[in-house]
């Protein structure tokens, strides 16, 4: 699915300018816990989140996230938009809540790119 | 790249192609009209004869010209106008009879994308370019834009290639028993605004040195969690030190306090001492160290309460992941 289709389906508002909405999105993941994003999201996914701080953009960069969708109609602080602009990561705001936004995209055929995170493979020392 | 194939895939475009398209579109926003336009175009006046237009177009091999009166742009004459005139065998007429008055213009400091939009919406072949005062400074055709974008794209590509080349051949020309490159970053305590900046730089450096996307990602995630730990938990910040060698990446993150009271407990998934403020940032759920351990091959956490903490990590590079030994060598090997 193209990113601009996603923007359309979510009634989204694109918050930064120097970006390309024609890119192909392979799937999506939704989380508010950045450590969970880092642990579970697969490369080339879009991230749906309720968090608005610049750390969301940093997390997206580290985890090779293609675009960030802020749910519940949130307006992020200027630093977040600036960082997204500098790093050229599309930042999209949607009026839908997390549950509904994920539902819309899943129903439209977007795959899940979250892998389960088990506690088994942790080690210490 | 993910190994999971998405269930429904409709695109036929490769990632490489997608990357290039993106850059052209980005450039259309970055480059200004005045950088790609033809400056000081041939101009004419309204009282000149159409015969002269014919001559000028033929000699200068152009297909349109702005009409100027005392420096002010008043119209434009194009080859289409000339054809209309020729059909009527009316070459003795003055330009003002055939020219288009008050033509669409673009500003020199508009981004190229604005001009592209105007070409699409107006269907004109050329646009006079004016400055802030409305004076004519150039003329722009779609050909000018294509040439300008191609040139910028080429420059862009060369710059990044040179950077990558330099970085990826770093270890080749230096002879020693063991060569390594060390990156150091000082991280301030409580500096949430810049949290992740060092990790971004580390990830970028590794990509330039030819590390695979997987290796760059693993390193990026591990250092990011460690960087956030320094920002969240330390009293005076700390240091991230990354040593890059062709066969391994060693990351050392240390601080001078306050230290961890119970290291074993800290390693437990879900255990956290973070404040509400930190949790609001999406961190502090007790998953940081767990995440790190998933990304690295070896992890060692030592801490003395009241003194400080030292986290050492290593990522081993298989032959195909080797960094700093050149793209050329690698692609040769691939061909074999």
TrEMBL record, chain A:
Pfam families, per the entry: DRTGG
Identify the residues that the record assigns to the DRTGG domain, covering every copy.
Answer: 5-106
Protein name, as recorded: DRTGG domain-containing protein
From what organism does this protein derive? Bellilinea caldifistulae
């Amino acid at each position: 699915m193209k990113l601009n289709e996603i923007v359309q389906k979510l009634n989204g508002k694109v918050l930064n300018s120097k970006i390309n909405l024609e890119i192909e999105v392979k799937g999506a993941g939704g989380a508010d816990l950045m450590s969970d994003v880092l642990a579970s999201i697969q490369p080339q996914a879009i991230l749906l989140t309720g968090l608005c701080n610049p750390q969301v953009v940093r997390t997206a960069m580290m985890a090779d996230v293609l675009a960030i969708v802020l749910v519940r109609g949130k307006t992020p602080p200027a630093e977040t938009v600036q960082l997204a602009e500098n790093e050229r990561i599309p930042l999209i705001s949607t009026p839908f809540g997390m549950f509904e936004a994920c539902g819309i995209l899943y129903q439209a055929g977007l795959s899940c790119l979250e892998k389960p995170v088990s506690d088994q493979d942790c080690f210490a020392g | 790249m993910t190994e999971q194939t998405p269930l429904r895939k409709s695109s036929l475009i490769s990632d490489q192609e997608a990357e290039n398209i993106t850059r052209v579109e980005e450039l259309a926003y970055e480059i200004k009209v005045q950088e790609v336009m033809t400056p000081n175009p041939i101009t004419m006046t309204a009282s000149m004869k159409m015969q002269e237009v014919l001559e000028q177009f033929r000699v200068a091999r152009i297909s349109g010209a702005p009409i100027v009166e005392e420096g002010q742009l008043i119209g434009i004459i194009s080859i289409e106008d000339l054809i209309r005139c020729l059909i009527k065998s009316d070459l003795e007429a003055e330009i003002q009879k055939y020219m288009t008055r008050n033509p669409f213009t673009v500003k020199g400091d508009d981004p190229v994308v604005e001009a592209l939009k105007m070409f699409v919406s107006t269907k004109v072949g050329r646009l006079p370019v004016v400055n802030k005062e409305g004076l004519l400074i150039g003329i722009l055709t779609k050909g000018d834009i294509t040439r300008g974008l191609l040139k910028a794209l080429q420059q862009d590509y060369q710059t990044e290639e040179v950077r990558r080349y330099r970085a990826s051949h770093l270890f080749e020309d230096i002879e020693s028993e063991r060569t390594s490159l060390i990156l150091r970053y000082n991280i301030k305590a409580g500096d949430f605004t810049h949290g992740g900046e060092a990790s971004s730089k580390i990830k970028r450096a590794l990509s330039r040195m030819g590390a695979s996307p997987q290796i760059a990602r693993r390193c990026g995630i591990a250092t990011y969690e460690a960087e956030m730990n320094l920002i969240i938990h330390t009293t005076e910040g700390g240091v991230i030190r990354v040593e890059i060698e062709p066969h391994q990446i060693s990351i050392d993150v240390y601080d001078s306090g306050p230290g961890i009271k119970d290291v074993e407990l800290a390693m437990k998934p879900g255990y956290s001492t973070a404040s509400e403020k930190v949790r609001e940032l999406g961190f502090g759920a007790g998953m940081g160290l767990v995440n790190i351990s998933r990304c690295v091959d070896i992890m060692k956490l030592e801490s003395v309460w009241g003194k400080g903490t030292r986290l050492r990590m290593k990522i081993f590079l298989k032959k195909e992941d080797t960094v700093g030994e050149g793209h050329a060598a690698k692609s040769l090997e691939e061909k074999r």
